[in-house]
Design a protein that fits this description.
The complex is a heterodimer of chains A (300) and B (402). Chain A has 300 residues and is mostly helical. Chain A has one domain: ABC transporter involved in vitamin B12 uptake, BtuC (Orthogonal Bundle). Helices cover 73% and strands 1% of the residues of chain A. In chain A, helix 5 runs antiparallel to helix 8. A two-stranded antiparallel sheet of chain B has the order 1-2. In chain B, strands 3-4 form a two-stranded antiparallel sheet. The longest helix of chain B has 33 residues. Chain B is globular, with a radius of gyration of 24 Å. Classes of the chains: A mainly alpha (300), B mainly alpha (402). Chains A and B meet through helix 2, helix 3, helix 4, strand 1 and helix 9 of A and helix 1, helix 2, strand 1, helix 9 and helix 15 of B.
């Protein structure tokens, strides 16, 4: 039973990280209908920035709470800047191009960023310092749920509540929803669509960067390639929940995280990634619109 | 042509990129020994690079605008691109073609075995590029797991030879068929959906195939792969290594010719035009009575067939296969060939494959930047020149008034 509970919590932790990345996919897809392949790379860049900033700060002798806050801020700011730049360079000029063009451009961007980090930093795995200390009161749960799992779960829950509030109640959130429903109509009522799209990329990238920092500190190592697999998995989660739907992305991420955790725990860990991909193919066959998505009919 | 405002903007952009790349380009940390390396000189390169890139892009756009304005005002005539002028003038392309054919036929006699070997690889990518061109360029289906079919072909030869002793010529068609079958199995559930799902599912499929090959030791011998695969035979004649490489080279030349012939015929066939039509507008296409799923499946399966056959040749060439040869990067390179060459353009794909494979071989100093450049090529081509270096010339018909 303990093993089951342990797997359950590790699945939840995984799921909440996937959710942070999947939200970026789903928001971008909802607004411009593009699979942003470079999103996984933004997550990786967030993790790298976090590693660099936290190491520099800790060598300079900052106290731990300050390191955590400053690192999170730096990772989110730089990743957002990358997301914003990528959108401007590679997607904005192609907004009215045939569907295939932005997809290919996104693949190119993803390859470029991956190799940029590989060349600018290192091809090897780098150890990532554990930013989250082991809390004393968590000791009685040892072996079931660790301190960093708890922090990840709480952080992601708070972020998701904030995001929901932002999208539901603020002006920007309303503009985002309007743009997602109908871009031309949104322009007609005076929404600056370019601005909304930029904001979406910035938000999505910041979430991914926080996710990258949390998971890197949890797992303890990173390299330039982590964004690729994480990106595909988060995308799977977004499709599972129904791409374009924000609650769907969160639900899909938790389902995927739990599935992976139990499958690797009870079946085999060699095929960890195969489970996610197989799940993706199965959803697309039986329920292409996802769990919470609406089936859309294309009108001419 | 360049105003002061442009220069100011270029400075701002350079500053933006310097700040953007600051943590990753300048700082390098070693978390274990707690050492920070500051590489300040990188700031200069990033700033200078982005400054010049912006100005170059600016000038390019300005010149294009001037040209377009002159054409609109009737001051200049619209000049067809260089590639088209060459292709439409038999007096130019016939000698070029003849020289090209002669060069490729005489290649093993002129150059060393090492060079021939590199050329064989380049020719394999020509065929792969032409195969993927059917899927991506002609039918407009973004297949990011093309390498999976390549792996199917390579492992088909390796395993069938290991267990049943089948020879190269027997497995060549089997490998193609097997890859086509995989293509249909994968395409069937996905091709009914929107195009972007196909991209990610094929990407996932490519990874699944590689992971299975890596982990299923009893079946595929795991990461260590299968070695001692025989080279292709010629009526049982014993050949030295040099001879067999020359033989493989001519075999590849034959394969390329065959591929060009088939792809060319396909593009102008009924199904080929259905592919083009489907790429342009799915809904209109369905309204004309074209079976969308079946047409897409044919493209997918036919594209996979070439990858399967080249896979067999690859296994025979290297006499060794392991899963590391079939990563996503391989698919990305082939996609890059198609995009650079021009979607649907046969000449363009051939040129792009030769350039993209041969150039890194001879510019070893820059080979670590290869994938970075490939990624940049995809983005730049899509933004500035989506039709590729040699734009595809579609058959046009004119109605003459009597």
């Amino acid at each position: 039973m303990d093993y089951f509970v342990e797997l359950f919590f590790s699945g939840l932790t995984r799921g909440s990280i996937y959710a942070l990345i999947a939200l970026g996919y789903t928001m971008v897809y909802g607004i411009i209908g593009l699979i942003n392949f470079a999103h996984g790379e933004i997550y990786m860049i967030g993790a790298f920035t976090a590693l660099i900033v936290s190491t520099v700060l800790s060598i300079m002798g900052f106290p731990l709470p300050a390191i955590i806050i400053l690192t999170a801020l730096a990772a989110a700011i730089w990743a957002s800047a990358y997301g914003y730049t990528v959108e401007k360079l590679a997607y904005r000029p192609l907004r009215n191009a045939p569907r295939l063009s932005p997809l290919i451009s996104a693949i190119g961007m993803s390859m470029f960023l991956q190799n940029y980090v590989l060349l600018a930093q290192t091809p090897d795995f780098l150890p990532f310092p554990a930013l989250i200390p082991d809390f004393a009161f968590m000791e009685r749960f040892a072996g079931v749920i660790g301190s960093s799992d708890l922090v990840i779960l709480i952080t992601t829950t708070v972020i998701m509540i904030l995001l929901t509030l932002l999208i539901k109640f603020t002006r920007t959130g309303k503009a985002m929803r309007a743009t997602a429903q109908d871009r031309t109509m949104a322009m007609l009522v005076g929404i600056n669509v370019d601005h909304v799209i930029s904001v979406t990329f910035i938000l999505g990238s910041a979430l991914a960067a926080i996710g990258g920092m949390l998971i890197a500190s949890h797992i303890g190592q990173i390299n330039f390639y982590i964004g690729f697999i994480a990106g595909i998995k988060a995308f799977t989660a977004a499709v599972l929940g129904g791409i374009g739907s924000i609650p769907g992305a969160v639900l899909g991420s938790f389902i995927l995280g739990l599935t992976e955790s139990f499958a690797t725990g009870y079946v085999s860990s060699d095929y960890e990634d195969v489970f996610a991909f197989s799940l993706l193919v199965l959803i697309l066959i039986f329920r292409p619109s996802g769990l919470l998505g609406k089936a859309t009919i294309e009108k001419v | 042509m360049l105003t002061l405002k442009d220069l100011g903007k270029a400075c701002l952009i350079a500053l933006w990129f310097v700040v953007l790349t600051f943590p990753l380009m300048v700082i390098k940390v070693n978390p274990i020994d707690r050492i920070i390396t500051w590489r300040w000189h990188n700031m200069l390169w990033v700033g200078l690079g982005s400054f010049l890139c912006y100005l170059a892009g600016r000038i390019w756009l300005a010149r294009r605008d001037v040209r377009l304005r002159r054409i609109r005002q009737g001051l200049a005539e619209e000049k067809p691109p260089l590639s088209r002028r060459i292709l439409q003038n038999p007096a130019i392309w016939r000698p070029l073609l003849a020289a090209g054919v002669l060069f490729f036929l005489a290649f093993p006699a002129l150059f060393s075995t090492y060079q021939t070997n590199i050329m064989i690889t380049a020719l394999m990518y020509v065929v792969l590029g032409l195969g993927l061109n059917i899927v991506v360029g002609v039918a407009g289906l973004l297949d990011l797991g093309y390498v999976a079919f390549y792996a199917v072909g390579a492992y088909a030869y390796a395993l069938l030879n290991l267990h049943f002793g089948l020879g190269f010529w027997t497995v060549l068609p089997i490998g193609g068929l097997l890859a086509a079958t995989f293509g249909i199995l994968l395409g069937f559930p996905v091709l009914r959906l929107r195009g972007d799902y196909l991209a990610i599912v094929t990407l996932g499929f490519g990874e699944i195939i590689r992971l299975i090959l890596e982990n299923w030791n009893e079946f595929s011998h795991g990461p260590s792969g299968i070695s001692n695969i025989p080279r292709p035979g010629l009526f049982g004649i014993q050949m030295s290594l040099d001879q067999s490489i020359t033989y493989l080279y001519y075999l590849m030349i034959g394969m390329v010719t065959f591929t060009i012939f088939v792809v060319n015929r396909l593009q102008n066939s009924r199904i080929g035009r259905a592919w083009f039509a489907l790429r342009e507008d799915e809904i209109a296409c369905q309204a004309m009575g074209i079976d969308k799923t079946r047409t897409k499946l044919t493209a997918f399966a036919l594209g996979a067939t070439w990858a399967g056959m080249v896979g067999v040749i690859f296994a025979a060439k290297t006499t060794f296969v392991n899963p590391a040869s079939f990563t996503f990067l391989e698919s990305a390179i082939i996609l890059c060939i198609v995009v650079l060459g021009g979607m649907g353009s046969i000449v363009g794909v051939i040129i792009a494959a030769l350039v993209l494979i041969l150039l890194p071989e001879y510019l070893r100093a820059f080979s670590e930047y290869r994938m970075l450049v490939f990624g940049a090529v995809l983005v730049v081509m899509m933004v500035f020149r989506p039709q590729g270096i040699v734009a595809n010339i579609r058959k046009t018909y004119q109605v003459e008034e009597k």
